[in-house]
Amino acid sequence: MKFKQSIASRLVIINLIRALVAIIVVASMLYTTREIIKSNEELDRAHQTLEHTLAMQVSSKSLLINGYGFLKSGNPEFLQTFEQERNEFDTDFAILLEGLSIHAEKSKFTLDIALEIKHIIDTWLVEEVEPQIIAQRMNVDIYSPKPVLLKSFLYGNALLTKVKDKQAELIAEEKSFLLKQQKLVQDTLAWAQLVFIGGILIFMMLGFVLSYFAATGITRRIGKLVEATQRLAKGDLDVVVDITSQDEIGLLGEYTNQTIQRLQHLEVVVKATAAEDFATQVRVLGQQDQLALSINKMSENLKNSAFERKNQTWLKNGIAELHSKMRSEHELVSLSQLVITYLAKYLNAQVGSCYLAEGKQLQLVSSYAFKRRNNNDNVFQFGEGLIGQAALEQQSILYHQLPDDHNDLLINTGISESTPTDIFVLPLVHENKVQAVLALGVSRKYSQIELEFLESVASGIAITLHVTRTRQQLVDMLEESKLQSEELQAQQEELRASNEELEEQSTMLVKSEESLRNKSEELQQINSELEERSEELERQTAEMTEKNTVIERAKQAVEIQANNLEKASRYKSEFLANMSHELRTPLNSLLILSQSLAKNSQGNLNEEQQEDARVIYEGGQSLLALINDILDLSKVEAGKLDIHFEQFSINNLLVNLGRQFKPVANKKGVELCFDKEDVLSDDFFSDPQRIEQVLRNLLSNGIKFTHHGTVSLKVIQPGPSVRFDNPALRGRNTLGFAVSDTGIGISADNQESVFEAFQQGDGSTSRNYGGTGLGLTISRELVKLMGGEIQLQSKEGEGSTFTLYLPLDRRLGLAAKQPLKANTRESKTHQEPLEISVPTADNTREEVVEVSTKADLLKSPLSPVPAREKTLQEKNTFADDRDILKAGEKSVLVIEDDPSFMRILIDLSRHKGYRGLSALTGREGLELAAMYQPSAIVLDLGLPDISGRQVLEQLKQNINTRHIPVHILSAEDKNTEVLQIGAVGFLTKPVSGEDIDSLFCNIEHLLQDSIKRVLLVEDDNNNRLAVTRLIANKNIEICSVSTGREAQEKLLSELFHCVILDLSLPDISGFELLNRLRHNKSITLPPIIVYTGRELSSEEYKELSQYTSSIVIKGANSPERLLDETTLFLHSVDSSLPHDQRKIIKMLHNSELVLQGRKILLVDDDLRNTYALSKVLREYGLEVIMADNGKLALQKLAEEENIELVLMDIMMPVMDGYEAMRKIRSQTRFKKLPIIALTAKAMPEDRTKSIEAGANDYCIKPIDVDKLIAIMKIWLFR
């Protein structure tokens, strides 16, 4: 689009006007300068004329004198001098004449005088002098007599006088001209100064006026753009930029309006897609319009998914309904009639028939709208026609586009007959045996889902037919068996009568013996037949059992399909989570750059620009919160959201909510009330964070939809009239949180839909009040996970009441939580409850307290802190001594996530004379340590936010907390690695009272020993002296020995707090000394620092790591490191060290200085991210090498040397981050290279996949720069 009056053209016009003024000023200056130059030339000429006039005056006088002398004496010397003076006179006159002739019109009078002087001199020479010269040269005596000489002298004197007069006139004229020229030069200079100053003032004023009007016009229109952009950032799309100028800003306004229209169009499409209206598509503006292509692709995928889901629902409903109907029929013919009728109606078939198999023959037994013929079409042999062929092959046959003369299966309406378009013949096969054949004709083409449906139900129908047929045979056999049993009973009755007759007629025994034997044989034969019948019945029973097993398998198949449907729903949720990658990637660079601009580290932004940057940053954070809501919903649907149960105070919860919402309510003019029934306890066991999240959403909705009136939150005990959907909830074991408002209310038709995702009260709600409709969906699912439910009571126009019901019985809540996945790492660590033996008041016995662990509370290390995380006071409601702690008092900070164990440790610390500080998370512990500077710290390794090991590392890296003794308490096995970092002790749970006493004794011992003793084992005198001078101060006593045996004797007889050991000793090596000390049970080893100049192999490093706390290789920076390690293990307070030592340690721990010059590799395919992140990292002094895919990253690692850390994105073209990290780790030299994974995917398994691929740590986009720098410091300092 061409613009007529561009900003550039306006600026060009302004600059042209200013340039014109400048040209005028310069031209005036040039003209004035030229005039000055001309005047100076005139002055120079006047000076030259005056000089030559004076020279001519002198030469003319000398000429006359020497000429007269020659005339008088005839002396040749006078003649020689005369000739010289004559030549000089002629020369001066010629120069004078030349100068005067150049400006003859301005110096005519002067020229006339000069010519007259010349004429006088020439006349005298010709008449008086030259004849004498000629005569002398001819040796003629022509000397005149004295009178003649006198006359000649008088003539010459008069001539000289006349020449002098003329020369005086000439000099006077030249001086007058000289004065005039000097006056002219002065006037010209004054004019030049006036023109220059005036031109400069005009130039500046004109530039200021033109620039002011141009800037005003630009800023006014840019202000409109900024206002529109701010409204867009807040989600207001009803914006029009009113700029009609014909320049770039006007064009920008037009493009902004097009962008707004584009966003409005996208909003319409997304809403339609959310409502499953897939007809609306986003207009694609070109191949570069990836957003439109992606949304259309997403809509198409959702459309296909909905269509597939609809088909699957239709398929499963048909199968389930058919199976349900078949269960009610037990007769074979009626069952076949039910099947063919149901299938014809469900598939909208016009005609159908069912043929039952009897041997190798198929008999028509039931039909649907089928007109029977008189021919043999009612009976088929296997292989005859389509019916027989399908039975023979046991394969379905689709006959498409039947000929018009086909008359076997016609559609008869009673008025006319027509040929079906498609006939589908389906054999019903069970265990490779055909049970029946179905034929269905339709007047259209069969769809794929219809054919799939028929194939799916075939096996079920066949099984049912087989079972029905078998059941019918079994009934017949039972009837026959019953008849045979009755016959047997009659025969037995006859036998009994015969026996009685035999008893009565014993005398006839001999006669009847033969008859009895025969009957006995008959009876045996009958019993044998009965046994065979019984075996046949058992075999049929086994077959029935097998058939039931088949039915059970079919049922399991249906359940598998239902599970697949559930998986499809989860896949949709994971798709939404993965889609956040496309949103987080551009949001990452937006947040990083806006935060950097808001900090204004270079100081080149004004307050308004900083505020604009903060507005952009806050808008990005709001968008990030929306993405997190979508991810919460995805995690809930995918079953991956953790619920953390703990004891908390309801009153504290209400106070926190009041602090958050009362300013909002007051600003809107809505009264906000909180109330709790007095009979209810303040303590409640559930997840306080999730409860607060749900109540925040309900209160926010209440205030949003209430224009005037009241919003209230009441904690209640539900009455007996309340009915719950959850059968586990009862009025007596339930706690209710009722949020009521007097707002717009919700109609009865919409009360169910408000809990669905992306749904609100009606179509106007989103337009009038905003929001995505996710809040109530997430709230409902969270409440279900906690074992409760949400009930809604509302009347449109009068207000609403949302009541959150939760179980008081903690077992119900925990039971609801069981399906959630626990953290694998912590589940291995904390699988047993902790048993802690605590001394009772009388110290005569020990009481065992069981403390339940909470493995599900643990999250992955360094996971981002949620934006809703509470302050220190809100996170930890445990009563400790922070409010009464005074300066100088001894205190112990306990960092433990188990409140029960925390309470025990705090009570014991008070019993030992310490003030107690409590922290339930690692981050809270770090803040408390920096704030209160406790005397000692008791640290658990398994914490819910970051690991205890990372807490220990950060404590020891901080110059202000590194001196604090830290004792580890953990359920893990003893870990020497934490002792090497700087811990003073390690206790494994469960612990006893003696263990706790030992812990506090150790702490007390460290605090009381003001003088720390160091054993220095070094055989070189110079090195020993240098180390002593390096670490010596008033609080350290150094004992030096030169051999290993001396060191062993010292450790046996004396107490040391630290050992500095050189490996090269004259008697035994340092390795052997360490091995001896380790196996000597009478020696308690203090921290050992190996200070050696040897190059150590990896095996030696591994061996030393079993004994030593630190290894320092002698080199350029080794003295500073040795000092740092020694003060660390001696727990020396920085302020107590000498100034030089303090300076060295501060320099080592200046992380900003340490980051200077460190080389890292940044791998990301998004140019916005690489630009933003590299810009910020370079401000910290880091050297950033960039690559846009994994393959290029491998090349950079091969080409660049000394890369110390890699920031690796996951989703990249060519080679993704997972493969790149695996290839990096496959190279031996990169085994220990720190790699931090960066990704916008936020599903829990993504971190596990990154760690398994080779990452050392994990950071979620959008990147929190401060958090990333903290992680990088940890890995760069290792």
UniProtKB/TrEMBL annotation:
SUPFAM superfamilies: ATPase domain of HSP90 chaperone/DNA topoisomerase II/histidine kinase (SSF55874), CheY-like (SSF52172), GAF domain-like (SSF55781), HAMP domain-like (SSF158472), Homodimeric domain of signal transducing histidine kinase (SSF47384). Residues 578-810 form the Histidine kinase domain. Keywords: Kinase, Membrane, Phosphoprotein, Transferase, Transmembrane, Transmembrane helix, Two-component regulatory system. Residues 485-506 are annotated as: Disordered. It is an enzyme of class 2 (transferase). It holds the Pfam family GAF_2. The modification 4-aspartylphosphate is found at residues 940, 1062, 1209. The keyword Membrane applies. Residues 891-1004, 1013-1129, 1159-1276 form the Response regulatory domain. It catalyses: ATP + protein L-histidine = ADP + protein N-phospho-L-histidine. Residues 216-268 form the HAMP domain. This is histidine kinase. It comes from Psychromonas ingrahamii (strain DSM 17664 / CCUG 51855 / 37).
